[in-house]
Amino acid sequence: MGLISLTTGFSTCRAGPFGLLEDLFVVPDRRGHGVARLLIETATDHARRAGCRSLLAGCGPRDVAMWEHLGFRSIGTLVSRDL
Asked: What number does CATH give the domain 2-69?
């Protein structure tokens, strides 16, 4: 039905582990049925158990409202560079 990737790292600002959520995908015919919420909540539980103090997620402009609805807040712009 869908997938999400959780990677953990260490935040020097928070002096502890953090989680990075990437690759959230829900198959088109299951969108709007709570699958994304379930994936994000499950990944959040894993991050908590790993000792993470915060979660980050990059998303496109059209997805910001969904993430905010699920308790995230916008904190700026994420930039990327291919190597």
From this structure: 3.40.630.30
